[in-house]
Structure formats: structure tokens, C-alpha cells
Amino acid sequence: MTESGKPILYSYFRSSCSWRVRIALAFDYETVPLNLIKDGGQQFSEEFRALNLMQQVPALKIDGITIGQSLAITEYLEETWPTPRLLPQDLKRRAQVCVISDVIACGVQPLQVWLWTCTPAHLWCASPHALLHLDTRGV
Ligand SMILES: N[C@@H](CCC(=O)N[C@@H](CS)C(=O)NCC(=O)O)C(=O)O
């Protein structure tokens, strides 16, 4: 929390994980932007490391704790700020939502980030070539 009492979201404007949390935040909060490519990556500062050992965004400072991992944050928000609901009350439907969320957060996103950071832009633009590039790396 800040002196104003508002939760703080540590995030990067291009981070899809940060967007996941921004969409879920239904109350007033402050943002601390971390530029992941400036200064060698501002997420690696000692100050941020003390808040989030993973040194990744998003991280939400709220209620005296700092939570990393977008899905852990949304789960906390679901339990502490139940209006509006983020998850269905019906447990079978909730399980389906969690499956989709896990596929995106744990399956698609890490590969997507890896592609962006390891693949030259011209390969990424031509998707068959990008896939070939992946294949030659044994992914
Ligand atoms: N599983 C995490 C992934 C977090 C993540 O990969 N964050 C990226 C931005 S989208 C990041 O901080 N990358 C910087 C780094 O790893 O150095 C989540 O869902 O929050």
C-alpha cells in the first residue's frame, strides 16, 4: 500500500501478464511501471527483488503483502473483492475457466515471450519461418 492506502501494481505496459491483472483490478490502485528492457531490465533492481524474488511483473502490493504471478493475484482478488466476480460460482464452470487460464499463463505465454526475445523480428513476421526456427531449436 502507498501512503494513500491504495494497492500498488508493479507492471510493464507491454506485458500480457500485467494486462491480465489490470483487467481484473476493479478498484483504484497505483501503478509503478518497470521497464523490462531499460537499464538492463528494471525488474532486476535490488529494490524490486526485495518485493518479488521472481523479479518479474506483475506484482501487486496489497493488504500488507506482495503477490507475484498473475493467476495468484486474480485468485486473491476473487476472494477479497468478490464484486465483480472473476470466476463462475459453479465449480465445474470454474474448472473450465481455470483450464483456459492455465493454458494461456503456463502454456502459451512462456513460449510467446521466448519467441519474442529469441527470434529475430523478420522470422517472427513470417510465421512458417518462425515455426521452422523453433523446430531447429528442438522446441
Ligand atoms: N507466470 C507469470 C509470468 C510472469 C512473466 O513472465 N512476466 C514477464 C512479463 S509478461 C516478465 O516480467 N519478464 C521479465 C523477466 O523474466 O526478466 C505470471 O503469470 O505472472
TrEMBL record:
The residue ranges of the GST N-terminal domain are: 5-85
Q: Which cofactor does it need?
A: glutathione
Which GO BP terms, alphabetically? glutathione metabolic process; L-phenylalanine catabolic process; L-tyrosine catabolic process
User: Known catalysed reaction(s)?
Assistant: 4-maleylacetoacetate = 4-fumarylacetoacetate
**Keyword entries, A-Z:** Isomerase, Phenylalanine catabolism, Transferase, Tyrosine catabolism
Q: Write out the GO MF terms.
A: glutathione transferase activity; maleylacetoacetate isomerase activity
Please verify whether the record's keywords include Transmembrane helix: no
Q: EC number(s) for this protein?
A: 5.2.1.2
Record protein name field? maleylacetoacetate isomerase
Pathway listed for it is: Amino-acid degradation; L-phenylalanine degradation; acetoacetate and fumarate from L-phenylalanine: step 5/6
Q: So which domain of life are we looking at? A: Eukaryota
Indicate the family of this protein: Belongs to the GST superfamily. Zeta family.
Q: Which SUPFAM superfamilies does the record associate with it? A: Thioredoxin-like
Gene, per the UniProt record:
LOC110579173
Against InterPro entries, the record matches this protein to: Glutathione_S-Trfase, Glutathione_S-Trfase_N, GST_Zeta_N, Thioredoxin-like_sf
Which GO CC annotations does the UniProt entry carry?
A: mitochondrion
Q: Per UniProt, what is one Pfam family of this protein?
A: GST_N
